[in-house]
Design goal:
It contains 14 helices and 5 strands. By secondary structure, it is mostly helical. Among the domains are: 87 residues; 112 residues, no CATH class; 100 residues. Helix 3 packs antiparallel against helix 4 and helix 8 packs parallel to helix 10.
C-alpha cells in the first residue's frame, strides 16, 4: 500500500520542445555579444558562434553564424558567467525541467512496479534503496526543480524501505543521509531580448574591433557587409549606408596592412639571414630593433605576425652568435691547422702520386717489381712520419683516415709484390682490396681535412 501511494505521487507531465539558448559574452567595453548556444573557453581563448544579421533570417529559421575566436582578456568574465548561469537556469526551466522530471517519475514508477511484482524480499529491498539514492540526488543536479515533490516521495519511500527491511529479515542496517535542500537558483540577471538585425551587425563590428587575429577581423567584416546587403535584414538606410562604408574602408585598411606586414616580414627576415651568415651579430640585432620600430610605425596591427617574425629573427641572432664564437675559436686554432697542413702536404703528395700504381694493383693489371719496391719503401717511411705528427683535436678524425690510407697503400704494394714472387692469385686479390680501400679513403680524408680547416659557416 505504501508503494502504491508513492506511485500515485509520481505524475508524468508532457515535455517541452528544446531550443537554442542565447547566451551573452560581455566585452570589457560593456557590449553584450550574442553567443548562439554555449561558448567554449580554451586556454587563453574563448570561442563561440555569433549571429550576424537577423537571428531567424537563415534557411529553416537558422541564423547566419560566424565562429568567433577572441582572447580571454577581451571579455568581462564576471558579467558573462553571471548572465550564462541565469540564462541556463531560465532555459532549463522553460524547456527541459518538466521533461526531465517526467523521465525521473517514469523510471521511479517502473522500479516501484517491479518491486510490487517481485516476490523475493531482499531483491525488493535492493530496488527500493537504489530508487531512493537516485531520488535523493536529483534536485541537486536539476536546479532544485520539483524538490518538494521529490522530498514527499522520499519520505514515503523511506517508510516503505523500513517495511521492506523487516520483511527481508534485516535486524541491523546503516542509513545513508543525503540532504535534499531546495537548490537556490543562480543570481537573477535580467535576460536580454534577441537582437535586431542592426544590433547583431553592430555587435559583430564590436567583435571585429577587439579581435587580435587579422583573418578573423576580415572575415567578420565581410559578413557584416553581406548582412547589410541582404534585403531580408531590413536595416535603416541612414544607419546601413555609413556602416557599410566604414566596413569597406576598414577592410581596405586591413588589406593594406596585411601587404605592408608581409613585405616587412620578407625583407627583415632576408636581412637577418644574410647578416647571420656573415656572423654579423650587431647587424642581426639591428634588424630586430628595426622590426619593433617598424611595427610601431604601422600601428601594431599584426601582433601575431610580428611575434612570429621576431621569433625568426631571434633564431637568426642566436645562429649569428654561435657562428661568431665558432669563427673566433677557428681563428685561435688557425695557426695549428696551417702547421699541420704543411706537415702532411708532402705525405698527401706521395699518396696522390701512388694512385696510378694502386689502380693497376686494384685491377690486377700488373706492376713493375722495381716500382713496387720503391713505392713500398716510400710509403713505409711516410707512414712512420705521419704517425709521429702532432695533431690538433679538430683534425684527429681526418688524420686517422690519412693513417689508414697510407697503411692500406703500403699493404697493397707489399702484397702485390708477394703475389708476383709466389704466383699466388689470392694474394693478388688481397692486394686489390687494400688498393681499392686506400683509393677511397684518400678521397674521404682530403674532403674531411678540407672541411675541418675551413672557416665555419651556418649549417
Amino acid at each position: 500500500m505504501m508503494l502504491a501511494a508513492v506511485m500515485a505521487v509520481v505524475a508524468v507531465v508532457p515535455a517541452f520542445a528544446e531550443s537554442v539558448t542565447l547566451l551573452r559574452v560581455f566585452l570589457n567595453d560593456g557590449t553584450a555579444i550574442v553567443s548562439y548556444g554555449e561558448y567554449a573557453r580554451v586556454g587563453d581563448r574563448v570561442v563561440f558562434s555569433m549571429p550576424v544579421g537577423d537571428v531567424n533570417s537563415g534557411p529553416a529559421g537558422d541564423p547566419r553564424l560566424h565562429v568567433v575566436n577572441l582572447p580571454v582578456s577581451a571579455v568581462n568574465w564576471v558579467a558573462t558567467e553571471k548572465y550564462a548561469a541565469s540564462a541556463r537556469y531560465s532555459h532549463y526551466m522553460a524547456t527541459s525541467a518538466e521533461s526531465d522530471y517526467a523521465v525521473l517519475a517514469g523510471d521511479v514508477a517502473a522500479v516501484l512496479n517491479r518491486i510490487v511484482l517481485t516476490k523475493e524480499p531482499k531483491a525488493r529491498l535492493d530496488m527500493a534503496v537504489d530508487a531512493r539514492k537516485r531520488l535523493a540526488t536529483w534536485p541537486r543536479d536539476h536546479y532544485g526543480y520539483r524538490a518538494d515533490d521529490v522530498r514527499e516521495m522520499l519520505g514515503m519511500l523511506d517508510e516503505a524501505i523500513s517495511d521492506l527491511r523487516v520483511a527481508a529479515g534485516e535486524t541491523s542496517f546503516t542509513i545513508d543521509l543525503v540532504a535534499t535542500p531546495q537548490a537556490p537558483p543562480p543570481e537573477h540577471v535580467p535576460l536580454l531580448r534577441a537582437p535586431t538585425p542592426a544590433e547583431a551587425i553592430a555587435q559583430a563590428i564590436a567583435v571585429a574591433k577587439v579581435s587580435d587575429v587579422a583573418s578573423d577581423r576580415l572575415s567578420i567584416l565581410r559578413n557584416v557587409v553581406a548582412a547589410i546587403d541582404n534585403p531580408k535584414n531590413a536595416l535603416p538606410a541612414t544607419w546601413a549606408r555609413p556602416t557599410r562604408r566604414w566596413a569597406v574602408h576598414t577592410m581596405g585598411d586591413e588589406a593594406r596592412a596585411g601587404k605592408a606586414y608581409a613585405e616587412l616580414s620578407s625583407t627583415m627576415l632576408k636581412r637577418a639571414t644574410v647578416a647571420a651568415s656573415r656572423a654579423d651579430v650587431r647587424a642581426v640585432q639591428g634588424v630586430l630593433d628595426a622590426v619593433i620600430r617598424k611595427d610601431v610605425e604601422l600601428g601594431r596591427k599584426r601582433p601575431d605576425e610580428i611575434n612570429a617574425l621576431i621569433e625568426q629573427v631571434r633564431i637568426q641572432l642566436d645562429a649569428a652568435r654561435r657562428l661568431r664564437l665558432a669563427r673566433d675559436t677557428w681563428a685561435e686554432r688557425a695557426g695549428s691547422f696551417a702547421a699541420y697542413q704543411r706537415n702532411v702536404a708532402q705525405i698527401v703528395d706521395v699518396l696522390e702520386r701512388v694512385q696510378g700504381t694502386l689502380d693497376d694493383i686494384k685491377h690486377l693489371a700488373g706492376s713493375d717489381a722495381a716500382v713496387l719496391v720503391a713505392w713500398g719503401e716510400r710509403l713505409a717511411a711516410n707512414a712512420k712520419v705521419l704517425t709521429g705528427l702532432s695533431v690538433p683535436d679538430e683534425l684527429k678524425p681526418s688524420h686517422a683516415l690519412l693513417v689508414s690510407t697510407i697503411n692500406l697503400a703500403e699493404t697493397a704494394v707489399r702484397k702485390r709484390r708477394q703475389a708476383a714472387v709466389t704466383g699466388d692469385l689470392q694474394l693478388a686479390w688481397d692486394a686489390s682490396s687494400a688498393a681499392s680501400g686506400s683509393i677511397m679513403l684518400l678521397i674521404k680524408a682530403e674532403e674531411d681535412l678540407e672541411a675541418a680547416v675551413r672557416l665555419p659557416d651556418i649549417r
